[in-house]
Design brief:
Strand content: 15-25%
CATH topology of the largest domain: Fructose-1,6-Bisphosphatase, Chain A, domain 1
Strand order of the largest sheet: 3-4-5-6-7-8-9
């Protein structure tokens, strides 16, 4: 990364830490109250994080474009119109509060008897990690509610920062590698000074082991995580033909309502003692769910120092739609464009959408040596997205 890109990474780290602290400082009643923010009918737990992230990024660079589901109409007014990646502005794709539905249920449970107590205090007093895992599945390091920001500059993925609001851990995927870092207690002001350099120096390098290293069987390699929780998603998944020889692919499904931005972590060592995962899938989901995975595809290294993950874009001959948006795209409509020997993201293609954050895609991410699934993907001629973007 260039110097300015490292500075932006530090700002994003700071913004997410600030959002986490404000969320922990809020009372249960504040987080669960409906507020008039963005498009309206928003819970405090969603508004708090987004407001802090937006304010801190704008204080550093008011020209940067921040894309969230609440703010995409504002970003649309300044959307790039030139397909030349060199002429495209700095853009941040952000999910301020992933798994907000689960977070609401969690906050309701822990604040039921003390609605005016701070969330951070309530979490400390109830062993929040165990409570979360009992309610929503282990490991909390993957399934916990998180905030995420991914930076795209000149058509290239630069970095992703993901902060787990339940565990107080932050994960950064950048050219230094993929690192996992435990923050201090939420009220400790030292957190506000944490930088990419600190995380790279003092954090733990996160490993993404290959299927051979883990001793996966052929069936293990077919176990997957994707979203199937609403109408239309199962039909869309079926048409991918990833399990054309299996009568009931649900037997291989690990989680049908998984987190979005941190889903790539299911392929990391954090999942090792919680069951095998052979691949993850964006099943026609919105861009804010899967954009963050691309940094892991680009920067995660395997045990040999090579690329740990591979990504494929699925194109259906007769794609389904969700709220008027295609759930899968052919190469002609894809954001991933070939340019010589490299691939870049043409964000300008979203300028014609009233709400760019609603753009959808089907994408599979697999360990580099999961040959069981790679040959299926390549048989269907699904396009590999290289790590050069």
């Amino acid at each position: 990364m260039q110097g300015i890109e490292r500075a932006y990474c530090d700002v994003c780290i700071n913004a997410l830490i600030g959002a986490w602290r404000e969320l922990m400082e809020a009372t249960g009643a504040e987080t669960l109250r409906r507020v008039r923010y963005g498009k309206g009918d928003t819970l405090g737990l969603d508004a708090i994080t987004e407001i802090i992230i937006k304010r801190r990024l704008e204080e550093f660079d008011r020209h940067a474009i921040l894309i969230t589901e609440e703010l995409d109409d504002q970003a649309h007014r300044r959307w790039p119109t030139d397909s030349d990646p060199v002429k495209q502005p700095l853009m941040f794709f952000c999910d301020p509060t992933d798994r907000s539905i689960q977070l609401r249920v969690f906050f309701e449970a822990i604040s039921k008897d003390e609605p005016t107590s701070k969330i951070g205090k309530l979490m400390t007093g109830c062993d929040s990690k165990k409570v979360w895992e009992k309610m929503f599945e282990a490991p909390v390091t993957i399934t916990g509610s998180m905030g995420a920001i991914t930076c795209v500059r000149k058509g290239e993925i630069v970095f992703s920062v993901i902060l787990n609001y339940i565990t107080g851990t932050i994960c950064v995927a950048a050219d230094t590698g993929v690192f996992w870092y435990q923050l201090e207690e939420f009220s400790n002001p030292a957190n506000e000074k944490v930088t990419l350099a600190d995380i790279s120096k003092s954090g733990k390098r996160l490993r993404f082991p290959g299927v051979c290293e883990l001793g996966y069987s052929m069936d293990d390699c077919r176990r997957f995580v994707t979203f199937l929780g609403k109408t239309g998603y199962f039909e869309n998944f079926n048409d991918s033909k990833l399990f054309i020889d299996i009568e009931n692919p649900n037997g291989f499904l690990h989680h049908r309502e998984p987190p979005g931005p941190p889903r790539a972590l299911y392929l990391s060592e954090l999942q090792n003692s919680h069951g095998p995962i052979g691949f993850i899938l964006a099943n026609g989901e919105k861009i804010g769910e899967w954009m963050h995975w691309l940094s892991f595809v680009k920067y995660a290294e395997n045990e040999n120092g090579g690329q740990a993950l591979r990504a494929y874009e699925i194109s259906l001959e007769r794609p389904w739609t969700k709220n008027g948006m295609l759930m899968s795209t052919s190469s002609a409509y894809s954001l991933f464009c070939d340019y010589g020997n490299r691939m870049y993201l043409d964000i300008s293609q979203l300028r014609n959408f009233v709400r760019p954050s609603q753009f959808r895609c089907m994408m599979v991410v697999v360990p580099y040596n999961n040959e069981r699934m790679i040959h299926v993907l390549e048989q269907h001629q699904y396009r590999e997205i290289t790590s050069s973007f």
